[in-house]
Every structure is written in C-alpha cells, then in structure tokens.
Specification:
- This protein is mainly β and 178 residues long.
- It has one domain.
- Helices cover 10% and strands 46% of the residues.
- The chain has one helix and ten strands; from the N terminus they run H-E-E-E-E-E-E-E-E-E-E.
- Strands 1, 2, 3, 4, 5, 6, 7, 8, 9 and 10 form a ten-stranded antiparallel β-sheet that branches.
- It is elongated.
- The two termini are 27 Å apart.
- Keywords: Signal.
C-alpha cells in the first residue's frame, strides 16, 4: 500500500539514486511518474461490482442500490507520446517524465473520448502504474500494474430530480492488456 510515510521514505531514496546514476548531460527520471513508456497499450476493463443510490418512488426517498455490470465494459488506449523535462513536484529540479495520451470508451462505442485530468489532455502515469482521468461524465481511476479500475459517475441526485434517470454510482473491476 502506498502511504505518505512510505512515499517520503521511498522518494528520498529514489531521488538520491536517480541523481547519482544520472550523468551531467542527462535529466534524472521522475521519482513520482513513469519515464519509461512501458504502460503504453490497449486495455479492456470489465466491471465486476457496482453500487450507488436510486430513487424509490414507493417510499419517496433515495436508498443504497446494487447495479448490474453487464454494460460496464471499457477500453483504454494508452499512447506514449515521448519524454518531457519538467520541474519535479517537491524539489523543483528538472526531471524526465513520459507523457501519455489516454482515450476511454465504453466497449459498445465506436469513437473513444479523450481522457483528461484538470483540463490537461496529456496524462502522467505514476511509477506504480496508476492514473486518473475524466471522459464525458465519468471519472476513471486505473492501475495498470494491478490491472484494476474504478469508474465513478457523480451526476444526478443533487440536481433535485427524484427519479432514476440519473443515479450516482461506483463500478470496480479488472483489466487485461490486449
């Protein structure tokens, strides 16, 4: 498990070893983000469990619900665009980071949507293999190393519409590279 404590310990070690291994002309690899491009590829992610809330018209209230996952099938295309140099998060020193372009689509869609985070189209993937992005109204958290994903739909309910046309949900599942 990745905790703040383990991060501080491991990042200090990685920073020292990265800087020591780099020659004067090369930029050290990032201590947080992938610089190799090894995560590029196509991934099929299938939902295995899903839950959220739905409106019960008989009791006129919202309640917890379990949802079917038969339509929760996503394809992520992760394209390595090349390494860029940028300031490191903690130290400000220059570091090398692989930039990725990620698209996400439901398995049945013909055209994938660009997956962005905070308005940025190019994604960074952590050294542990995880990234987070949004496509349409869904937020995805994906870990390529563990081959797990989570899709969060946070729309509905707060719009004041008491019906089941727009219900918040969280779906989890497994991925495979193809």
């Amino acid at each position: 498990m990745f905790t703040a404590r383990s991060f501080l310990f491991s990042s200090g070690f990685c920073l020292m070893s990265s800087v020591a291994a780099a020659d004067e002309k090369s930029t050290p690899a990032s201590i947080l983000y992938d610089s190799s491009g090894d995560f590029a590829g196509n991934y099929l992610c299938l939902g295995s469990a899903s839950g959220g809330v739905r409106f019960d018209s008989r009791s006129n209230s919202w309640e917890g619900a379990t949802f079917k996952t038969d339509e929760d099938r996503y394809i992520f295309t992760v394209e390595a665009l090349g390494s860029v140099t940028r300031p490191a998060f903690f130290t400000g020193a220059e570091e090398s980071v692989m930039q990725y372009h990620v698209t996400a689509s439901n398995f049945d869609q013909t055209s994938p949507g660009s997956c962005s985070w905070n308005g940025e189209q190019l994604e960074k993937i952590s050294r542990q293999g995880d990234f987070r992005c949004n496509s349409a109204l869904v937020e995805y958290s994906v870990n390529i190393s563990t081959m797990r994903f989570m899709a969060t739909y946070r729309q509905g309910y707060i719009d004041g519409q008491d019906n089941n046309f727009n219900t918040p949900s969280v779906t989890i599942g497994q991925c495979s590279k193809f």
